[in-house]
Design brief:
Length: 510
């Protein structure tokens, strides 16, 4: 009975407002849903105020009834008609307010993922809450959202979308590249991965070129790994007799935080066409400070039916201050059914000041079925080589191996050369070994030339040992006079009281 009398009793507004503010302040500390305060039951509403819940409803969740047990902060008539529009308008306003905590929360929460049917900037993933949370994923080439200020992982970039044409051949929407990954939190978090590039498409009402992969996001400022780069889009074109068909390049890996490893570069896209083709380049690995550099992405393969084929080069490995440099990406393989093919060079290994340089990427394979020449790619340089950072301690990276070459028809085969190793650290550092030369083989009347071994690098000035030379590649032909093996690589010189490396072994005729 007492409760019913209290419900029908009106309390002056000036008395209830101090209580309202106290309750709202307490609710803001405990977390929850929105509160909306109206000026009166019949007048115009004031602006919505988004605060947090006290675990029970402060405004009615449905039209008032005689059994309504909700606690109301302002004047409440339990017998108010259901047609009263104020509560419904208040609830609608509260529903449009961004939450404080939770999915899409502006203070703490993960960013919202982009919808799959998005266009334009709506394809970017939402940023995480101000304090912490993971960024949302992008879609259709949109970028991943950034992590929270303190903690969280960046969102992944969306995969690229192919172009869309109307039935009359007019362009409806352009192809998009893979989106970039979002950054990690300021203190801790990994960068998001880049999205893959879109593939090339050939249709009756319009063609869509392939696109590049997105770059990986940076890791957290204090601790975090960089995101991996996205793969470049493939391009398979057996339909159009164009002069050159190219694939998309892989995205670069994201750089690491103060502690962490760089992201791997994305692989280049592959190609196939009747005429000249070029594979996509691999993306570079992300750099690091106290951690390992990211590996470079592999170059994309290339195949042509009638013309020249050039594969994509491997991406360079990421450098670091203290740690192991990233390995270079391998060069892509190339095949021409009728003409020349060229395997690409491998990416160089990443350098380091204190640690071991990255291994150079292997050269790309080359093959021909006709009368053309198959020329394989050379290996990439070992980390710390040819400029850049000067190593203090540690071992130089090994040079990459040369690619193999084969001529199945009456063409020639020239294998790739191994590349030089990287120098050792100035103090007790060991020079990197040279890479091995590639193997060359011909099945018909052509000549086979094996790849030369790479040179070993010099050791540190104070007690460092030189690297070994790489071995020369073998050669094979129906007659021995058509085969020339590769020579071995030269040794690296030693520092004071160090040991000189050995000469690489020469290749043999098979």
């Amino acid at each position: 009975m007492v409760e019913r009398r209290l419900r029908n009793r009106r309390i002056p507004l000036q008395l209830i407002l101090p209580v309202t503010y106290a309750v709202v302040a307490g609710g803001a500390l405990t977390g929850g849903i929105a509160v909306v305060i109206g000026a009166s039951a019949t007048g115009s509403q004031g602006p919505a105020v988004a605060l947090t819940s006290t675990e029970f409803a402060l405004i009615p969740q449905s039209p008032a009834t005689t059994t309504d047990n909700d606690l109301w902060l302002l004047d409440h008539n339990a017998k108010a008609p259901a047609a009263s529009g104020v509560p419904s308008r208040a609830l609608a306003a509260a529903a449009n307010v961004q939450p404080v905590i939770g999915y899409g929360g502006w203070l703490i929460g993960n960013g919202v993922d982009a919808p799959l049917n998005c266009t334009g900037t709506a394809c970017n993933g939402g940023n995480a809450g101000l304090l912490w949370g993971n960024g949302g994923s992008g879609a259709n080439g949109g970028n991943g959202g950034s992590a929270g200020l303190l903690f969280g992982n960046g969102g992944n970039g969306g995969n690229g979308a192919v172009a869309i044409y109307n039935s009359d051949g007019s362009l409806y929407s352009e192809a998009t590249a893979g989106g970039n990954g979002g950054r990690g939190g300021l203190f801790v978090g990994n960068g998001g991965a880049g999205g893959d590039g879109a593939i090339g498409l050939y249709r009756s009402n319009g063609d869509s070129a392939p696109t590049n992969g997105g770059n990986g996001g940076a890791g957290g400022g204090l601790l975090g790994n960089g995101g991996a780069g996205g793969k470049g889009g493939d391009n398979f074109n057996p339909y159009r007799n164009v002069q050159l068909t190219s694939a998309g390049a892989g995205g670069n890996g994201g750089k690491a935080g103060w502690l962490g490893s760089g992201g791997a570069g994305g692989a280049g896209g592959s190609t196939y066409a009747n005429y000249a083709v070029t594979g996509g380049a691999g993306g570079a690995g992300g750099s690091a400070q106290f951690g390992n550099g990211g590996a470079g992405g592999a170059g994309g393969s290339a195949e042509s039916v009638l013309s020249r084929a050039d594969s994509g080069i491997g991406g360079a490995g990421g450098s670091t201050f203290a740690g192991t440099g990233g390995a270079g990406g391998a060069g892509g393989g190339a095949l021409s059914q009728q003409w020349h093919s060229f395997g690409a060079i491998g990416g160089g290994g990443g350098g380091t000041v204190i640690g071991t340089g990255g291994t150079g990427g292997a050269g790309g394979y080359a093959e021909t079925w006709g009368t053309g020449t198959a020329t394989a790619g050379n290996g990439g340089t070992g980390g710390n080589n040819f400029g850049g950072v000067t190593p203090v301690f540690g071992t130089g990276g090994r040079g990459g191996n040369g690619g193999d070459a084969r001529a199945r028809g009456n063409g020639n085969a020239i294998a790739g050369q191994g590349n030089a190793g990287g120098p050792g650290g100035e103090i007790l550092g060991t020079g990197g070994n040279g890479g091995n030369g590639g193997f060359a083989r011909v099945d018909g009347a052509g000549s086979a030339v094996g790849g030369a071994g790479g040179s070993g690098a010099f050791g540190g000035q104070f007690g460092g040992s030189g690297g070994n030379g790489g071995n020369g590649g073998d050669a094979s032909a129906p007659t021995q006079d058509k085969s020339t093996p590769g020579v071995g690589g030269r040794p690296g010189y030693a520092g004071i009281r160090g040991h000189t490396g050995r000469v690489g072994r020469a290749g043999v005729r098979r």
